[in-house]
Amino acid sequence: MGLALLCVVLLQLVAVLIAGLLTFQLVHMLAKLAHVTRLNHRGSKLLSVALLAVLVVTGLTLAGIGIGLFLRMGPDNLSGMLTQLASVLDNLRDRLPESLAASVPDETDNIRKHLVAWFHAHATDIRTVGTHTVRGVIHALIGLILGAMVALHEVTPQKRPSLFLQALTHRVTRLVEAFRRVILAQVPISAINTCLTAVYLAIVLPCCGVDLPFKKTLIVVTFLVGLLPVVGNLISNTAIFLMSLRVSFTVAAVSLGYLIIIHKLEYFLNARIVGTRINAKAWELLIAMLVFEAAFGVSGLVMAPLVYAYVKHELMEQGVI
User: Fold this and answer.
1) Which end of the chain has a smaller Cβ tally under 10 Å, C or N?
2) What are phi and psi of 145, to 5 degrees?
């Protein structure tokens, strides 16, 4: 299983794994809600699970296409937002009050230049996205289909598996459980954080006469990156702060204060929802994500919470920790 997870990251199959696990979990959840498992007739049970699998795959595919089109099309596209964030960083001293601008050391210029270059590079990548996006979409679709097929396999008659398949199934079950505990547990946290952020961006600021640009994109990005424990909140908060700084320093200061409150709430929710389920603290997940990101890039960042939860479950069951 360790080699399999390593191959998933090295061969860039993270989208396949995440999509497959997500589909499998959703089909199982809907099957329980619909009491499909209580059906006595094997054919009816198989047909019901098949219909649920088709429903889940279709829903996730349409949702993915909708989010992708929203982030790439229209005036509030992600590329335009990254370009604006780069512009804010490029003129950071001019946007700060004189008292603060004078206290900003010159050594930060190199950091600022790297950040500006990063935003410009990714904005260009989004505009010129091609084969990588197509491959990612195909991988995600394959993962959705595989997840549905595995869910169907669960309700089909099976012969007694060999010892190897029994051990492999046991490890896969642990991996699925780790996914359910970490990734799906992060959904309500991200949803709450996104709702509070949307209230601030779409209601509070307009009522105060402030029309923050790219607020729709910021809300969508807040939810998507919020699915990453710990670092997701930092990414969205930084984007909102910089976009608020584009309007004025006062708006940026108020936004920062509001986001700090949300950030404290998310740490509480992480401790309650994620930490208690996998017996891990926020700093443990953060270290795992930093290490995996340094070793494997963005794919490692996405896989880190899942792999950490799985490995810790294995070690705890073996009595090592």
Assistant:
1) C
2) -65, -40
- The mean pLDDT value of the chain amounts to 77
Q: How does pLDDT run across 82-116, given as a tens digit for each residue?
A: 777 777 766 666 666 665 655 555 544 555 565 55
The tokens 């099957």 sit on which residue? 31
Q: How far is CA 134 from CA 14, 129, 139, 141, in A?
A: 15, 9, 9, 11
Retrieve residue 105's tokens. Answer: 């050391």
Structure tokens given for 315: 């070690």
Q: Is the model's pTM score more than 0.85?
A: no
Q: Could you state, in order of their start, the residue ranges of all structural domains in the chain?
A: 1-158, 161-321
pLDDT at 42: 62
Q: How far apart are CA 8 and CA 292, in angstroms?
A: 13
The gap between the terminal CA atoms of the chain, to the nearest Å, is 19
CB 147 within 8 A of CB 22: yes
Residue 264 CB neighbour total at 10 angstroms: 10
Q: Is 60 exceeded by the pLDDT of residue 20?
A: yes
Read off the pLDDT of residues 156-170 as tens digits, 9 standing for 90 and up. 666 777 888 888 888
Mean pLDDT, range 36-55, rounded to an integer: 71
CA distance 210 to 57: 40
Name the nearest CA neighbour of 113 among 134, 128, 98, 93. 93
Beta-carbon contacts of residue 229 (< 8 Å; ≥ 6 apart): 182, 186, 270, 274, 282, 285, 289, 305
